[in-house]
Automatic annotation (TrEMBL):
PANTHER family: ACETYLORNITHINE AMINOTRANSFERASE, MITOCHONDRIAL, AMINOTRANSFERASE CLASS III. This is Aspartate aminotransferase family protein. InterPro entries: Aminotrans_3, Aminotrans_3_PPA_site, Class-III_PLP-dep_AT, PyrdxlP-dep_Trfase, PyrdxlP-dep_Trfase_major, PyrdxlP-dep_Trfase_small. It comes from Streptomyces fuscichromogenes. Belongs to the class-III pyridoxal-phosphate-dependent aminotransferase family.
Amino acid sequence: MQNAISNSSLWRPWTPITQQTNSMRIVEAQGNRVRDAEGNWYLDGISGVLNASCGHGHPRLIEAATLQFQQLVHYDPMVSSHDPAETLASRLAEILPGELSETCLLNSGSEATEAAIRIALQYWRNIGEDRNRVITFEAAYHGTTFLAQQLSGLPFTVSEWAPPFPIDHVVLPASPRAVRTEEGADALIAEFERALRSGPPAAAVMVEPLLGLGGCVVLPAGFLARLRELCDRHGALLILDEVFCGFGRTGRMFGFEHEGITPDIVTMSKGISGGYLPLAATTVTSAIKESFTREPVAQGLRYGHTTGGHAVASAVANAVLDVMADEKLVENSATQGATLLEGLRQLESSPLITDVRGLGLVVAIETDTSESAAAIATAAAQAGVMTRHERGVIRIAPPLTITTDDTVELLETIGTAVAVASAADR
Ligand SMILES: Cc1ncc(COP(=O)(O)O)c(C=O)c1O
């Protein structure tokens, strides 16, 4: 039957219904490139859904999935555990610092947020303290389950329903460019201090190491270390959302490593399985898990999903860690990212560009208007480079497998796209 509102029966998320027609269709992906239905190949400047960190069609990841499919697809996590999940949880405990050793495996970043908040709130009850207030950035994005969405104050995702517990949003006190300065850092930490002081004691502060969907805002050096210290002073748990930054995206295995801190809870998804299969993890300290042995919650965590920690997804995640080590992808992210950032910074002389910022292999180009960002992204796509833009910010986050030649191509194409958009703007 003919669909009255679009030429497709597929309801795509985050896309206005009236704009769902005539969209591009991606039919193939290999290495760092993707092909559309018309046969055009693109350099993938956005790693699929910001998750294809090992590139597309990696033979070792396909082999790991195939072998696991043949041996055991999955089994009820309530009845039994299985080797891929056990191995993954212990490998995460090895690569995460301090006492971060207890992992729940889930399917999506939103579920990881959901688990982190439920665990944090339940922890305070377990130890007999009445804390349920959560503090996040207004420009945060922690996902879109009902609870995760409540944490964001971003206009495009803000929830229409009241949250089940108090949430305070910290507004960036300056522009993304100004917030990176020493004064910006002081002003930002003062905002968090104010949020922690005002109102009842906070249960948790949840932040991303870099505000991904909130405009790729690079937080000032020293911010996370100072926030850790603030949380300790106020007794609040610090939750780091590594869904976007984790697994090498920022040039370190985890974004918080840039500051040498140890969070109380870490959420992960996207790069954990290289985007090959849905997977997420929430890792907490042993002290937090231990609190769940007490009455009345001695039955443990009352949260989980049928396919959480799916055996094939977990097997792929174990292979991702091997590939990352063998191909030195964290190191490549740092070196290629530095070249990319330095090259794109040359574009700041264009009147269309107001800021270029980044960390590792996530670089954002902020433009003067949403129209400029759209024009640059369109010109880049026509020249064979896929990027993503939202609210005037173009985001570039290629696979960590990007080569030096790919980086040169990216820089040349984006440079030409800015020139094309500038000429059209005159
Ligand atoms: C920082 C961050 N947290 C959480 C999420 C939600 O993850 P998912 O889309 O897998 O639910 C995202 C998704 O982009 C994210 O960037």
